[in-house]
Structure formats: C-alpha cells, structure tokens
Specification:
- The chain is an alpha+beta fold.
- 29% of the residues lie in helices and 26% in strands.
- The protein contains eight helices and seven strands; from the N terminus they run αααββββαββαβααα.
- The chain has a seven-stranded antiparallel β-sheet, covered by helices on one side.
C-alpha cells in the first residue's frame, strides 16, 4: 500500500478556524438543551432511523446505522433512552467501543424532513430483560440494548438535505445503476468459492429471516 501524503494547507487551531468561518449566531449558541423535552420525544417517536457514532479507547471512530419502525428507540425518562440491538453481523463495533469509551453521538432522521435531531451523551450496554422486553417485536426481545445518558440535544438545520435532495425521488439513481452490496462484499472478503451470486443469496436469506 502506498504511503499517502499529508493534506496541504490544513487548519491547525480553533482561532484559525474561526477566522475562516466566523462565529455562530445567538440562536445557534442557545439551541442546545441537556434533556429530552416534549419536542425531542416527539421527534424520536417519529424517527425510524438513526446513526450512532462511537470511538474506542484510542480514539478510532466508527459510525453505525440503526433502524426499525418509527419510535423503536425507547425513551425511559427525560435524561435516558435505550436503542434496541437487533440481530446483525455480530461484529458489535459500537458496543465494543462503548465498553472502553462511553462517549456517543446520535443523529435521528425522519423521512421527508430536512431537520435532524442530534443527541450526545454517555452510553452503556444494557442487558436487562424487563427493559428490553418493552422493545420486543413479533415476540422477540433484543438480547442487548444501548442505553444513553443524555447530555446534549439540539436540532440540526436542513441545508445538507436540501443540497443533496436526499428525499427527492426524482434525484435518485436508477436501481440498475446503484452499487451492489453483494458484489462489493465479494470483492472485499475474497473468500474461496464465494462469489457475488452466493453472497447475494446469503444476504437475501438474512434480510428475509433474521431481522428480529
């Protein structure tokens, strides 16, 4: 693997950053709250999708998606929420990170809405049958959950979604032009006698039979 060169003309200090970008407005400076009010709860209850950002003890970062029916995240009280851990690939990147570094960042999305809800806090890996039972689907409760002690909540503006036109179907690529997950996975894994078709069948079976 070739050694990459350092990026040219990088910003080194916060002062230099502010000299380039300017300072946030009074509205932006005052929009952060430290608890889940009725507006945050309503947003979470209507959100079917979020991303969770974690880092290990060395600061190596990871971001992972979580999705289910709207309102799948359980709000325990005005300072705590729980994200159910549904069946996945068992890498457990987020949870392994949380066990060594509890700091997390959440980004809640609602389809069709440009604004997003950002929540930052400290996370724990939950293994409590009573709490996890409240998030059961089709009689199956999650084996684990990610509990978050909320420290910051705030709305993020819609500019990124307006620029990308993410929710505009007219801007979506044709299905035939989209990247193929099975093809990428086959190329990256390089397992003997396991090609794109075989991985496609594995993924299809997983999507059909083990969502919960």
């Amino acid at each position: 693997m070739k050694t990459t060169q350092a990026f040219p003309n990088t910003v080194k200090t916060i002062e230099e950053l502010r000299e380039i970008t300017g300072n946030p407005s009074e509205l932006v400076n005052n929009k952060v709250i430290s608890y889940l009010d009725e507006h945050c709860r309503d947003f979470i209850n209507k959100s079917p999708f979020l991303t969770i950002s974690t880092a290990d003890e060395f600061g190596a970062c990871d971001v992972s998606p979580r999705g289910d029916n709207a309102g799948f995240v359980y709000v325990l009280n005005d300072k705590q929420l729980i994200i159910p851990e549904r069946p996945g690939n068992k890498r457990m990147d987020s949870m392994r990170n949380i066990l060594s570094n509890p700091n997390v960042g959440l980004l809640f999305l609602i389809p069709g809405l440009g604004e997003t809800l950002r929540i930052n806090g400290k996370a724990s890996v939950i293994h409590d049958e009573e709490l996890l039972g409240k998030m059961a689907v089709n009689g199956k409760r999650p084996l684990l959950g990610i509990g978050v002690d909320v420290e910051e909540c705030f709305i993020h503006c819609a500019k990124a979604f307006r620029r990308s036109e993410l929710w505009n179907p007219e801007m979506w690529a044709n299905k035939e032009e989209l990247p193929k997950g099975a093809k990428i996975l086959a190329a990256h894994a390089k397992l003997p006698n396991v090609d794109e078709e075989a991985i496609g069948k594995i993924l299809d079976k997983s999507y059909r039979e083990t969502l919960y």
